[in-house]
Amino acid sequence: xxxxxxxxxxxxxxxxxxxxxxxxxxxxxxxxxxxxxxxxxxxxxxxxxxxxxxxxxxxxxxxxxxxxxxxxxxxxxxxxxxxxxxxxxxxxxxxxxxxxxxxxxxxxxxxxxxxxxxxxxxxxxxxxxxxxxxxxxxxxxxxxxxxxxxxxxxxxxxxxxxxxxxxxxxxxxxxxxxxxxxxxxxxxxxxxxxxxxxxxxxxxxxxxxxxxxxxxxxxxxxxxxxxxxxxxxxxxxxxxxxxxxxxxxxxxxxxxxx
Length: 258
What we know:
Blueprint: H1 2-21, H2 34-42, H3 48-62, E1 72-75, H4 79-93, E2 104-108, H5 135-142, E3 146-151, H6 187-194, E4 200-205, H7 211-216, E5 220-221, E6 243-248, H8 251-257
Parallel strand pairs: 2-3, 2-4
Antiparallel strand pairs: 1-3, 4-6, 5-6
């Protein structure tokens, strides 16, 4: 009996080793969650550099060609170098720098970023670089997130129905059906997350601009209670209403970002 079981045990162990040794492939980034990506990093299957490049490849393939989703205003030219920095820290310490270590994030382009223009979707501010990060952007960077791109929005976040700016010609498109709306000024962020241009996203909500785009694109978005999340460095449409919040693939990811 033992002789018959031994080869079977060896076969199971061999299959396990082969499975764990499989590298992270482009298909694995589709609908990937923070937990899944961190597990892959911890098992040595994935680096932050590889992850960023997988998303950049998707942006290149689908944003301004193919389905022409038109969700991205600017790709961060420093995303790969930041990923290299985080990989070096992880290799040296064996620890993540924070709960969003190496996770690429899509940031709506009304959040200030000190190293990239913040256009608010208007051509007049195409080259406007703020002196410092928005408070929320600063916090996600400290948690290890990598800003991979700034996303399209309704100009100055003025629309609750569509995402169209004077920066980009044409509307942002819904990845699930490009003839349908992205629903609201944060539609560029939602389209980008739904199309797997980044793992997580940041939006802003005046009336429905986190909740609308999230629901229209099978995502999870939170509109936090006013005062829960700092609005410092976010260009508001209405100070009485506006707040920033996460747009993510799952409830778990949205909670982690919040």
